[in-house]
UniProtKB/TrEMBL annotation:
Required for chromosome condensation and partitioning. It is found in: Cytoplasm. Belongs to the SMC family. Contains large globular domains required for ATP hydrolysis at each terminus and a third globular domain forming a flexible hinge near the middle of the molecule. These domains are separated by coiled-coil structures. Homodimer. It comes from Heliorestis convoluta. It comes from the Bacteria. This is Chromosome partition protein Smc. ATP binds at residues 32-39.
Length: 180
């Protein structure tokens, strides 16, 4: 599974539509302090269903919408899309290219789309469970996360191991079944 493209529109400092193309190999984003590097990784976590405004370094979800600058008015909507190559079928859908989109409006209204069709947040969670890429995924390691793993409580550490072992989706299904 390869991340091929990220599109941002109205997300944090990306007021205009911005496309980031990732070629095969390692991609490094460099830039001065405050230029929006971390906003790119926030965008990836957000589109994958991050629900905590705080972990996106804001206080409410509306904070992901471009808030205006000296020269630009604020915008009314933030949208992020990621294109993933699913050639190897790691994601349990038939598409060879998977496009995940999330939008949020200032009114609070929000949508998730999978290959341009509306879906639920739950569908996004299911799609990425056990791939390491989900909202709580282990493939995005923020500053301080390494320390967090080392100092986490046993049950938190267990969650990392379960994700890596690929059994999260079974645990979720079991919990659902027990609720019914
Ligand atoms: P550093 O090198 O310090 O880690 P960085 O390149 O990671 O910097 P970011 O943290 O990604 O920078 O970007 C911070 C910038 O994004 C700030 O200038 C902040 O004003 C801007 N920003 C964040 N949210 C919004 C928003 N909703 N609207 C407009 N600008 C925003
Ligand atoms: Mg940063």
């Amino acid at each position: 599974m390869v991340l091929k493209r990220i599109e941002l529109n109205g997300f944090k400092s990306f007021a205009d539509k911005t496309e980031i193309l990732l070629s095969p190999g390692v991609t490094v984003i460099v830039g001065p302090n405050g230029s929006g590097k971390s906003n790119v990784s926030d965008a990836i976590r957000w589109v994958l269903g991050e629900q905590s405004a705080r972990s996106l370094r804001g206080s409410k979800m509306e904070d992901v919408i471009f808030a205006g600058s000296e020269r630009r008015k604020p915008v009314g909507m933030a949208e992020v899309s990621i294109h993933l190559d699913n050639d190897q079928g790691k994601l349990p859908v038939e598409y060879r290219e998977v496009l995940v989109t999330r939008r949020v409006y200032r009114s609070g209204e929000s949508d998730y789309l999978l290959n341009r069709s509306t879906c639920r947040l739950r569908d996004i969670h299911e799609l990425f469970a056990d791939t390491g890429l989900g909202r709580e995924g282990i493939s995005i390691i923020g500053q301080g996360r390494v320390d967090e793993v080392l100092s986490s409580r046993p049950e938190e550490r267990r969650a990392f191991i379960e994700e890596a072992a690929g059994i999260v989706k079974y645990r979720n299904r079991k919990n659902d079944a027990l609720k019914k």
